Predict the 3D structure of the following.
Amino acid sequence: MKREISPGLKFALEIGPLAVFFLGFTYGERLLGLPGVGEAMVGLIGEKAAMGQTGPIFLATALFMVAIIASLAVSWSLTRHLPRMAVVTGIVVAVFGGLTLALQDETFIKMKPTIVNGIFALILGFGLIVQGRSYLKYLMGEMLPMDEAGWRKLTVRWTWFFVFMACLNEAVWRTQTTEFWVSFKTFGNLPLTFAFVLAQTPLMKRHMIEEKKGPAE
């Protein structure tokens, strides 16, 4: 049976791995410079990365993968349920993070947000175009009682938002420094998502279905 957890803990589990990634990158050079730490990390992130200037991004990637796994494990232990989007993100992080470390190429971890957003856009678009249904309603219908027109419009908007975020990530990592990309990933994605969600409030209010009230006692 699915159990509920507090909104604060849920937010911490979602944002925690991203915070670990940012801190791992920001302080990675110091950590790897500590006596014995760089040598100890050779088996995890590779000798070239552990001993070179590019080490922080590989250290952050390794810590990010561990944090994602830990977050999913804690979520499962507390709720006996794993959000589908979190599972997809975890799988992509494992694949692209693994490629980053195995091939010593930071390109793969930088492409992860592009792939994740692209997958979500494809799933939502497939549901609407091919199956004529809103997968958002399937995921959130119990929390948001809206009519079918509202779910279609909201799904279209989320689809294009995911496309936008995928393209934005590609533009940032291909044109900016790694330091800028890490800051954007940490402090840019979340505010943009919150702003988008808030912008959908008028649409959701217009299409909200009022709960039927029983006969007065």
About this structure: The mean pLDDT is 85. The chain has 13 helices and no strands. The longest helix spans residues 148-175. Residues 1-103 form one domain.
